[in-house]
Specification:
The chain is about 40% helix and about 15% strand. By secondary structure, the protein is an alpha/beta fold. It folds into 5 domains: about 5-130, no CATH class; about 155-300, 3-Layer(aba) Sandwich (Rossmann fold), CATH 3.40.50; about 395-485, Winged helix-like DNA-binding domain superfamily/Winged helix DNA-binding domain (Arc Repressor Mutant, subunit A); about 500-655, no CATH class; about 670-810, Ribonuclease Inhibitor (Leucine-rich repeat, LRR (right-handed beta-alpha superhelix)). The strands form 5 sheets. A 13-stranded parallel β-sheet has the order 9-11-13-15-17-19-20-21-22-23-24-25-26, sandwiched between helices. The protein has a 5-stranded parallel β-sheet with strand order 2-3-4-1-5, sandwiched between helices. The chain has a 3-stranded antiparallel β-sheet with strand order 6-8-7. It is globular and about 70 Å long.
Amino acid sequence: MSETKQLVSLPPLFQETFKKLLEIVDNAHKSNTTRRVLRSTLRDLNPLLQEIKKYNENLNPPREEIKTLIKEKDAGSDGFRRCWSRIWCKKEDSIDGGDDAKKALVMANDVKLTLIKVREMLQVLNGENFDENFNGGATKGPCSVPENAEFCVGLDEMLWKLKMEVLKDGVSILGLTGMAGSGKTTLATKLCWDKQVKGKFGGNILFVTFSKIPKLEIIVERLFEHCGYRVPKFQSNEDAIQRLGFLLRKIGQSPIMLVLDDVWPDSEPLVEKFKFQMPDYKILVTSRVAFPKFGTPYILKPLRHEDAVTLFRHVALLGGSKSNIPDDDLVQKVVRGCKGSPLSIKVISKSLSHRSYKFWQNMVQELSQGHSVVDSSNEILTCLQKILDVLEDKSVIKECFMDLGLFPEDQRIPVSALIDMWIECYGLDDDGREAMAIINKLDSMNLANVLVARKHTSDTDSCCYNNHYIIQHDLLRELAIYQSTKEPLKQRKRMIIDINEHKSEWWRDEKQQGMIAHMFSKFRRFCVKPKPLKVPARTLSISTDETRTSDWSNFEAPEAEILIFNLQTKEYSFPDFMEKMSELKVLIVANYGFHPSQLDNLKLLSSLSNLKRIRLERISVPSLVTLKNLKTLSIYMCNMNRAFESDTIPISKRLPNLVELSIDYCKDMVEFPIGVCDITLLRKLSVTNCHKLSALPTEIGNLENLEVLRLSSCTGLEGMPDSIGSLSKLTLLDISNCVSLSCLPEDIGNMYNLRNLYMTNCAMCELPYTVINFENLQIICDEETAASWEALNPNLNIEIPQVDVNLNWLFH
């Protein structure tokens, strides 16, 4: 049937919309793929419209309500529910009308389905063209499947059962439950990596970690980002779910498997929102508790003793020899104390490797005492705590482990943030090597895992650990928090304040809550104005979202040296108590939503004379205030076009003692702020993954004390000024992945102190003749660039590293 005939046969209500859409398909400047998708959608819609037309003619349905629904262009949830409610009431009024009533019900349902498709098309008309923003799926997004475990035992039977279920056609939701640390995530990961499962679902395997307090909008934002589409701003949770449905239908031409990992009991209603009627759509839910609503769950039981011993020996032998494991009797006793928990086995077996016989005996004795009878999680926590109790070197290692509990659950912890903290807290060296050694120690003990998002050959000091993260099992995080709260409140080094829709109180355990409530009750009774509540902690961590506000008027933290804000808000105003934090040395502000959070009340920072380090993540950075003693500033994935704008006070006066500046993944950075070039004390400058940056200012030659300059992965950088040759103290230059860089400046040969030059993926970059002046330069580059250097200066030390071939850095 031709499109003209289709228009004539349609109800008048749809003719104009249909015609408009067809015109846009033919005339708008869109891709061929977009035209095919739209045209296919319209043709698929036509039979449904014909049925509605027939029912319109026979039943005289409530046309005004249908018109109202069609006019709901954006299909806002409230308007949609009101209109749909009116139709539903009329359906119920006619429910006894026999066949006509049944047809009315069918018609109403068809209208609903039609409106969903009309909404999808209207989204395209409004500029929400997915194809324009699609990056081809080249990047490993935030909902990618975790790395597959190299070795595990005791999971084969359950893996086979789950595999058979997900390979079936159709729609289903599966539940996998087990105690904390039992290996649910490991099993779900192995399922996703299975060859047959990957063969069926391909790139449509989405892995989402729910955590204890999930945020629907943030989850949907990450799914959009993962799938390579522009992340919309949602008006509400209902809007987020509607758009998620559109996204899944977009990618749902192939089967989809969605893994919802670590779902807590109160999140069952939220899981329901991820259910969509699609041809082949599977949802796997992992949780510590069973959800009967999702059918009979698959229960992952503790490891059998034989499997537990196998796992224990495997982990204990890593990097060692069999002689390091004492007699079998001790092994059996230790394994029994682990209660079949793979997590406990990994942590304790690794800690015992290369230890003395006496140390093993102490561990056996510790494990045989103090078992909790409350639940399995507490029992495993008791087990894990033993490794901390018997550590010979308790000081820095244990303190650093407890610091990991200051960050949100199921979030990657930036290594650079930890380095900033630990340098100031524990007096570690400024280059971050000692801090990195502690991180590697925690990793070797299985108390945390180090994740390198992209291996970089120039990772040699604290300025370049932006690609390094710590990830931690939530049970180990609970252990870190528990260890921090064992001390009396007045002696506590860390204070964790969590304010969200489920928790308006500040302190976690009931005893403290009761004590603080009693204190405020006495203040209200005997005082006109309550005395300030002074927190003695050296480190203060505040997590908050938009669902709760808190009154900080009577709160003080005068001894705090570290302040961490974990935000899930669109806007946040620094609390007034910060003005009196005279000892504050490190400020970390991280927003865990997709869109940057707007900060307010920054003027408070001007009074903090000891503030030395600031890290901002996913923040809209306003103009910086005067911070005369600030040494390190890290800006990560921020909107920063206003941060260095010139005003009455130049940036060199606002930050006169800045030594390190790191700007990473700032997409709105088009021009390098010239005012930074006047900060003469600057020694380390890192501007990386800023793809819109096309040039450096001539004034960069004014940075007479600069020792490290990193410009890696600035893909739009086309050239460098000759003034860079004035950087006489520069020892390290990194221009790796600057794929648009056409040549090095002539004066680069004047940089006699340059010792390390990183040029991987810079094959288009021409070398000037002046490079013959270098004598002690080490060059790390690709083979093609190496050939260019060898032709001009064959006496240099040239290293061709193993290249990380993924392109994640292009699409972050």
